[in-house]
Amino acid sequence: MTVAHDDPYVGRLFEEIATLLVDGDGDPESIHDQLLELAEANSPEVARYWRQNGRGVGIPDVAYKSGGPHLFPDETPVRVFRTSGTTGSTRGEVRYTKLGLELKRLAVTAGAKLNVATGAGRTAVIRFAPTEADQPTMAIAFDMARIEEEVGAPELSGSIIGPNGMELDKLTAMLDAAVAEGAPVVMVGATFAFVNVCDALRGLGRSWELPPGSKVVDGGGFKGRSRVMAVPQLRATLTEVFGVVEFDNIFGMTELAHQLFNASPTRLGPLGESPKAWRPWGGARLRASGTRELITEGRGLVEVTDLCLLDRPCAVLTGDVGIGSPEGVAIAGRVAGAASRGCSLSLDEMTGGR
After folding, report:
1. How far is the C-alpha of 101 from the C-alpha of 258, rounded, in Å?
2. What 3-state DSSP class applies to 79?
3. 188, 179 Cβ separation under 8 angstroms
4. How far apart are CA 200 and CA 191, in angstroms?
5. SS3 call for 283
6. Please, which pLDDT band fits residue 121 given cuts at 50, 70 and 90?
7. C-beta separation of 317 from 289 below 8 A
8. Which of 66, 76, 144, 267 has the most CB atoms around its CB within 10 Å?
9. What CA–CA distance (Å, rounded) separates 243 from 286?
């Protein structure tokens, strides 16, 4: 029997997930079971897929190229995010109801508190991502704005990606202001946006020694449109230009509500990728490519469990290869033949990648 968005059952489930995110209280296993039941009740296609492949196996990310399973089709979405796509490819689309979007907001905020906040009274958060006004359907614009709201001092923070691309003058002014005030700087955004900005700043002969506590949190893979940059090389460049020594990496997808951060600086992947932390509301794990059985070590297909997803099934098979270890799963690039994801490539282009 289909469950309506305004059914009390959905309201109670929303409250359980919100409490888990905000207070850390709750039973993730019970929430997971309820989310599976909801998906089975509201999507015959998902129920059939699970009968064929195993209950709870992640929905392949390619399913969202055609809109994917949406559990409340009769409820008008309040927000639609689209993957940027690659040349000639179909853009993926995910829809959020009011409750679903609120859970996404809470999930991004929870991640920011744990992994981005500096502990300082005033922090400059500089977003290497567009604003929501300029890119309302780009999930990274939504996520980065929520991080700024949670962590940043408004008068010191903002985006340096405008309608026409990278705004170097604005970036240099914001960095100079933070240094003058002694406020730590957190720079967040797509990995290759940092690469391109560093190229431009070095060309101008500009560099900084940012205040203690400053860090860079980059998101996305380490392959741009025309080149590859390993993690050690990227971080050495960031230290040279900005004087930062603290780093983290976000794994996010348009199809996901929450973001994955590094569990440790251990380098597992071929480009130095680190294992991602598992949180009570989800994380990455591996499935064997042939059998879809869960595995804990070695190489496999990355599946992300996301208990913050209310509007679609709570697990996604990402199309990425992962390397498992006791610390977590390092996400080490796309499966052979899979298209590169759109947001990172789009921001590479927006910031002048070549």
Report:
1. 11
2. strand
3. no
4. 15
5. strand
6. confident
7. no
8. 144
9. 36
Lowest mean pLDDT among 32-41, 208-217, 338-347: 338-347
- The residue type at 289: S
The rounded distance, in Å, linking the Cα atoms of 188 and 123 is 13
Instruction: Map residue 334 onto helix, strand or coil.
Output: strand
User: Which DSSP symbol is given to 136?
Assistant: T
Q: Which of 149, 202, 157, 196 is CA-nearest to residue 177?
A: 157
- The contacts of residue 170 (CB under 8 Å, 6+ apart) are 158, 160, 162
Contact 245, 239 (CB under 8 A): yes
Two structure tokens written together for 102: 């609120």
Q: What is the DSSP letter of 155?
A: G
**Distance between CA atoms of residues 129 and 118, nearest Å:** 20
> Cα–Cα distances in Å, from 274 out to 185, 201, 217, 229, 335?
23, 27, 13, 15, 18
- Report which DSSP code applies to 19: H
Question: Judging by beta carbons within 10 Å of its beta carbon (0-12, 13-18, 19+), is residue 105 exposed, middle or buried?
Answer: buried
DSSP string, 167-224: -HHHHHHHHHHHHHHT--EEEEEEHHHHHHHHHHHHHHT----PPTT-EEEEES-SB-
Region 150-173 average pLDDT:
95
Question: What sign does the dihedral 335-274-141-110 (CA atoms) show?
Answer: positive
DSSP 86-135: -TTPPPPEEEE-HHHHHHHHHHHHHHHHHHT--S-SS-EEEEEEE-TTT-
Q: What pLDDT shows up at residue 91?
A: 74
Residue 338 identity: A
42 alpha carbon, distance to own chain's centre? 26
Q: Which of 111, 95, 191 is nearest to 147 (CA)?
A: 111
Cα(first)–Cα(last) distance of the chain, in Å? 52
DSSP assignment letter at 321: E
Reading the block at residue 320, the tokens are 């990425």
